[in-house]
């Protein structure tokens, strides 16, 4: 059994979900979603930084997995 396609598809799904969740965090940070983040006790810029880094890393993994060529040996 070859588990490479299963692993490849799983990484695509996980990174897409990560990109969506981090996108929601960024939408909250920029004020497009009506969620009050000031009551969390965390500075606002930290939430923006974490959301931005999370989004960029998820997007990098997603783009890499989508452009990776299938090699069968």
Provide a descriptive summary of the structure in words:
The chain has 73 residues and is mainly α. The chain has one domain (4-67). The protein contains 2 helices and no strands. It has helices spanning 4-29, 44-67. Helix 1 packs antiparallel against helix 2 (44-67). The mean pLDDT is 89.
Give a brief rundown of this model.
The protein has 2 helices and no strands. With 73 residues, the protein is mainly α. The radius of gyration is 16 Å and the shape is elongated.
Q: How are the elements arranged and paired?
A:
Blueprint: H1 4-29, H2 44-67
Helix pairs in contact: 1-2
Please give a handful of descriptors for the protein shown.
2 helices, elongated
Low-confidence stretches: none
The total count of strands amounts to 0
Overall, the morphology is elongated
**Biggest pleated sheet:** none
Spatial gap, N to C terminus:
13 Å
- Going by helix content, strand content and strand pairing, the class is mainly alpha
Approximately how much helix is present in the residues? 55-70%
Oligomer class: single chain
Percentage of residues in DSSP E strands:
under 5%
Q: Using the CA coordinates, give the radius of gyration.
A: 16 Å
Report the average pLDDT across residues: 89
- What series of H and E elements makes up the topology? HH
Total domain count? 1
The DSSP helix count reads: 2
